[in-house]
Amino acid sequence: MKNEIFAGCLSAMMLTPVAAFPADLVVDVQGARDNSGTMRMTLFAEGDFMDYDRVLHRSISLIRSGQARFRIRGLEPGTYSFTILHDANANAEADRNFLGIPVEGVAASNNARGTFGPPDQQDAEFRVSENRVEQVVELVYY
Question: Which of 36, 120, 121, 135: CA 20 to 30 A from 80?
Answer without folding.
Answer: 36
